[in-house]
Amino acid sequence: MSDQAPGARKARYWIGWVLSGWLIAFLLMDAIMKLLALPVVTQSNAALGFQGAGMARALGVILLAGVALYAAPQTCVLGAIVLTGYLGGSVAAHLRVGDPLVSHVLFGVYLGVMLWSGLWLRDPRLRALAPLRSRVSG
Prior knowledge:
The chain has 138 residues and is an all-alpha fold. It has 7 helices and no strands.
């Protein structure tokens, strides 16, 4: 049982969905662009060492599957795990080619923090599994 007021629980839940919604919308747009193999996608992928429209579409399918899993409350944790792996690959790819740290390499980390923060805020099971703890004195 939570010691917070119902209004605080409701606000936390909706803030979590807003964060998750932004992330879902952004990743869905990215997945669609990859599935369409737009020139901007194939050129960006080529710079990272991923050649061709087939590779872009494969990445789009993986990303779309992860987003679908994350968006469904029944499979949101599995989706978060899949997307964390996907974003980790993005971090590794950008690091490998020497892209700028703050703007490119860590972008996947920023998205991952948003992903897990949104899920943590909206899912009491995850908060029970990974609670924030205050410092214990003494």
